[in-house]
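Sharing a chain and its predicted structure for anyone who wants a worked example. Both blocks are below, sequence first, tokens second.
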Amino acid sequence: MKLNVQTDYSLRLLMFLATKEGGTATIQEASSRMGLSQTHMMRVAAKLVAKGFLASSRGRLGGISLAKDASAITVEHVIRAIEPDFALVECFATSKNFCSIEPGCLLKGVLSSALEAFFSELRTVNLAQLTQRNHAELTAIFRLDDPSWQPIAGRVRTTMASRRSAASGAH
């Protein structure tokens, strides 16, 4: 099982805003600080607004922010809201199930149990837990403590790995 890119970016955007501690951010700022495509970030933010995770406001001081407290948003809620489906194998999708061995197969039950264990674990973790213990590190990664930071179009193409490498002095 692999989470799609929108789910990955959704979790990153929510973690960024939780690290900002109630602050509003523009799509340009969020995408630039995370080194992600602004186009992808706009799609992700629109979906998170539609699903009730983000609030958006227009105008000069507008942007996006968490719609509820970070402790009220679990990783499970985000993944279930953004991922299109969890049909791990053909027999999970009853309308498209043409598996000839299903009547005698126990795999569906095993995979169903594994998927429930996966969600059970994610149900116990919220955004606040993902961002509080490592708040200083995330603040540095997102450069939230840098008053001179300005979004630059070229920054969108940088990766988190290249930032870590530059921060550590490696060339």
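Comments welcome. Residues 6 and 44 are 6 Å apart (CA to CA).
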